[in-house]
Write a structure and sequence with these properties.
Elements (H helix, E strand, L loop, with lengths): L1 E6 L2 H10 L7 E6 L9 E2 L7 H10 L4 E4 L2 H6 L1 H7 L4 E2 L3 H8 L1 H11 L6 E4 L2 H10 L4 E5 L8 E4 L2 H12 L11 E5 L5 E8 L4 E3 L4 E2 L2 E3 L3 E4 L4 E4 L6 H21 L6 E10 L2 E8 L7 H4 L7 H9 L14 E9 L22 E3 L2 E4 L2 E4 L3 E9 L2 H14 L5 E2 L6 H9 L1
Parallel strand pairs: 1-2, 1-4, 2-3, 4-5
Antiparallel strand pairs: 6-9, 7-8, 7-9, 10-11, 10-16, 12-15, 13-14, 15-18, 16-17, 18-22, 18-23, 19-22, 20-21
The structure holds adenosine monophosphate and glycine (GLY).
């Protein structure tokens, strides 16, 4: 079968590696992919948001199945367009991807169906939003309604910071149309857990839990990033918490989307905060997380392609979805300066023996040499029997694949280890 994966980062590399385990897949394409994954898939220079070209490529190459991974094409209707020409897909249609595409939609959905989340207000007028943040309790969280490359959320710890966030979004249009409407919500406290789940719109099967590290620097300091590293499983996510999430959050979300006439198929990502009043939803994503996928999929024992097709065909209840009992850690090697401006084009060497442990997020080919080409460049990943071993092994990989101007957080997994001691 001919399969194409839309997207080009480390998450897509992890999906591609896992798909390759299925011998029925004879040809695997990445659109656009990146030069660092060329050994695992044929990279085709078509952008993930160029839906017309994606559809033509699928038609011209008789593609049998598509995995649409990033948020933009999902929200823009890539799955709808491919299904129209008869290509089955893993991923939600646009109407369901709205659960990530609009925070106002997601918050209203949770309110309507009683799914626990932070209290919030929605604003479309600058003056009203400013008046609100001048009087509300601090800290407060300001969120752009639409997609903003993971940068549309500000946790404001002072009134000034909250006002700045409102002005940046509504007055200076930092996020374009995405920031014309704001959700301003209550600040929640507690450990954060990411749970990705397979769903066919009826059955929902959570994957192994994970923990992201969003801040750029050690000790959770510095600017917010797409994610600087992950570990799985997340020690805070005990069986009791998992059972409660299933009953109060996961299944109600699937049912709510059905009730709204927006059945969700694909990977639904729950960003959760375990507050003293129980688990609450911080955010939904309509897709695999990055870099959560880089620790979750290496722990998947079952065949990914089989599970994905079962989601597409509404048969998820009939297939086995099994995870290894091991632990995994992914350390992101980024370009110095990220998430701000950074230089690109530094040569990149990945020793052959480590290739299977490195997911390439941002690389290009220059005169036959692999060079850095992004903020997040590599995800160094290891699986081991225990979390401390996985963390150590992931850092050992990171030590061996360094490139000029690289940096990584030195404390990925540290909080998880502390949690292990506490839980
Ligand atoms: P998001 O882009 O929605 O994942 O938000 C980025 C980060 O902001 C989350 O991972 C949380 O750490 C933090 N955050 C978002 N919403 C809240 C909230 N209501 N209370 C506290 N922290 C939050
Ligand atoms: N790592 C968080 C995300 O993918 O949104």
């Amino acid at each position: 079968m001919k399969v194409m994966v839309i997207g080009g980062g480390g998450r897509e590399h992890a999906v591609i590696r896992k798909l390759r385990e299925n011998p029925d897949i004879t040809e695997l394409y990445a659109l656009p992919g990146n030069a660092g994954m060329a050994g695992d898939a044929v990279c085709v220079p078509i952008g993930a948001k160029d839906i017309a070209s994606i559809v033509s490529f699928a038609e011209d190459n008789a593609i049998d199945y598509a995995v649409v991974t990033p948020d933009d094409p999902l929200v823009l209707g890539c799955v709808d367009a491919l299904e129209e020409i008869g290509v089955p897909c893993f991923g939600p249609r646009s109407e369901a991807a709205k659960i990530e595409g609009s925070k106002v939609f997601a918050k209203d959905l949770m309110k309507k169906y009683g799914i626990p989340t932070a209290r919030y207000e929605v604003f479309t007028e600058l003056e009203a939003a400013l008046a609100y943040v001048r009087s509300c309790p601090i800290p407060i969280v300001v969120k752009a309604d639409g997609l903003a490359l993971g940068k549309g959320v500000v946790v404001a710890r002072s009134r000034e910071e909250a006002e700045d966030a409102v002005r940046e979004s509504m007055e200076n249009h930092k996020f374009g149309k995405s920031g014309e409407r704001l959700v301003i919500e209550e600040f929640l406290e507690g450990p954060e857990v990411s749970v990705l789940a397979f769903t066919d719109g009826k059955t929902l099967v959570p994957m192994v839990s994970s923990m992201d590290h969003k801040c750029a620097w050690d000790g959770d300091k510095g600017p917010n990033t797409g994610g600087m590293g992950t570990v799985a499983p997340n020690p805070w996510y005990t069986p009791a918490v998992a059972a409660r999430c299933m009953e109060e959050i996961f299944l109600p979300t699937v049912q709510a989307m059905n009730a709204e006439g927006r059945p969700f198929k694909g990977c639904l990502y729950f960003g959760l905060m375990l507050t003293k009043d129980g688990p609450k939803v911080i955010e939904y994503n309509c897709r695999f997380g990055d870099p959560e996928t880089q620790v979750v999929l290496p722990l998947l024992e079952s065949d990914l392609f089989t599970v994905m097709r079962a989601c597409t065909e509404g048969r998820l209840g009939e297939v086995e979805v099994k995870f290894k009992d091991d632990a995994a850690c992914c350390v992101i090697l980024a370009s110095r300066g990220y998430p701000g401006s950074y230089e690109k084009g530094f040569p990149l060497e990945i020793p052959d023996k480590l290739r299977q442990q490195v997911y390439v997020a941002g690389a290009a080919l220059r005169d036959g040499q692999l060079v850095t080409n992004g903020g997040r460049v590599l995800g160094c990943t290891a699986v081991a029997e225990t979390l401390p071993e996985a963390i150590e092994a992931a850092y050992a990989v990171a030590e061996q694949v360094k490139f000029e101007n690289a940096f990584c957080r030195r404390d990925i997994g540290r909080r998880a280890l502390q949690a292990l001691a506490e839980v």
